[in-house]
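Record type: ASSEMBLY
Status: queued
Input:
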Amino acid sequence: MNKILVIGSVALDTIATPQAMSKEVLGGSATYFSVSASFFSDVNLVATIGKDFPVKHKRLIKSFGVDLRGLETKKGKTFRWEGSYVDDLNCAKTIDTQLNVFADFKPVIPREYKKSPYVFLANIDPDLQLFILKNLKGQRFIGCDSMNHWIQSKGKALKKTIRKTSAIFLNDTEARLFSGESNIIKAGKYLLSLGPRFAIIKRGEYGAALFCKNASALLIPAYPIEDVCDPTGAGDTFAGGFMGYIAKTNKTDAKTVRNALAYGATMASFTVEDFSVNRFLRLNKKDIEGRRRKFAELMRV
Amino acid sequence: MNKILVIGSVALDTIATPQAMSKEVLGGSATYFSVSASFFSDVNLVATIGKDFPVKHKRLIKSFGVDLRGLETKKGKTFRWEGSYVDDLNCAKTIDTQLNVFADFKPVIPREYKKSPYVFLANIDPDLQLFILKNLKGQRFIGCDSMNHWIQSKGKALKKTIRKTSAIFLNDTEARLFSGESNIIKAGKYLLSLGPRFAIIKRGEYGAALFCKNASALLIPAYPIEDVCDPTGAGDTFAGGFMGYIAKTNKTDAKTVRNALAYGATMASFTVEDFSVNRFLRLNKKDIEGRRRKFAELMRV
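Status: finished
Output:
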């Protein structure tokens, strides 16, 4: 099995939804990505946490088989994010962000991870993403995520990062901001023009689009969930399912990519059914295969 | 071939888009529906126009084989709508509406149309829709559209209408307003609870969802168009493709409905490529089949 290395955040999230409030639960881009990818591949996680990080959360991530040798504990407090979906379940309103130890995150990649064939650069400072890439060697497939903040403040560094990746994952707002194009095809073409082989635009409850060099685009709806509990982490879970499947098969042909997209969407649909990564605690491969089949059936026209 | 009877508006539209301005072009819900459905079935149109309605527009509708015996010319001016997509290509801002002869529209259904097996009640006053249904007999399939204005001002009459139809077509904003549910599955279930066998929620550039009694839901993206000229009429064109295909096959089994949904989306994707119904003047069945195949391929995961 091919290992995936993910570098990103491990956080404590406080989330308000129309139905409930969830305090200091396990969150962070690297967490969601790892847990999701772990259903397909082995995952090595690189992130930083503070001394206040609950042991039970560490155990929880480990329970998915995620290798935590790269999870560094620093003096100080863990990165915290507080968000609200009370007004709109599809769009988080950030109430508070406390970077804490994440502010000085300088990822140290364990030597044994440096030749990881699969790497996912979760949403962190593009300068750090570039720094990480300089410390890696011989990758087969590098995925990369980002956000509005970096697009606006470090667009140039982000472009440099993207040039070195195989796949860029952005949501539609980010893709539009970055490309200056409101049309999804134009935005996709712009992202491909920066160099990567694949550009994946995530559209939340509306699904996702995948653009490839020298192949037709793919466009899928999201698997509809009647009772959405908390959409936090859906994007990273999507990327985890996508890259987990690519790593598992060790291929990037058209059929594999179609499957990867479907598994990404399938995994994202589970995330939103509970807070944090809780839904994955009661998930098995049969559930995943069942929903993945239903998903294909849903749009078989 | 089974004929479809459509009752709705024939209008003169003035439309501003980020690229261009289009003055007093042929528009109206019944126009878009008829032209789209005409590629699959024979269509009989019932609407009202003023004496100022250009002969060339009448000829244009006729050129698609649409039967205009039910197009009544009244003293006065034709219904006019002025809209702008300058700020948002996905959402029309109404600049001006002049109902003119449409204000007193009291549809007279020609006797030979009364037993039409397929009927589409385009977006008009629900009381009129009910009045029309009282004058019809022995239908196999009745489709119905509406809008926010009627949902808010005549919700009760609209519910009565929907109870008598086979399929309700609403866009997502309308479905949410009507159901009080922001979740698409819940909104779909609500619409089905009013009685129809099918509830179709149109999501603009994000595609469409179809909910059925006793069958799984379908969810499709929109066929992506790189150069959207004018989205006006996409919803009615969608309904025209959907119902045109249902009428052509004279069936409503699961496979037919899946095809109908795909043809609806395919036809809608053509509309937005030009102003008015212009795109259909240079469209043939081969083009439709080609795009319909591409559409299925786009989301084959």
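Annotation: Residues 254-271 of chain A form the longest helix (18 residues).
Annotation: Chain A has a mean pLDDT of 96.
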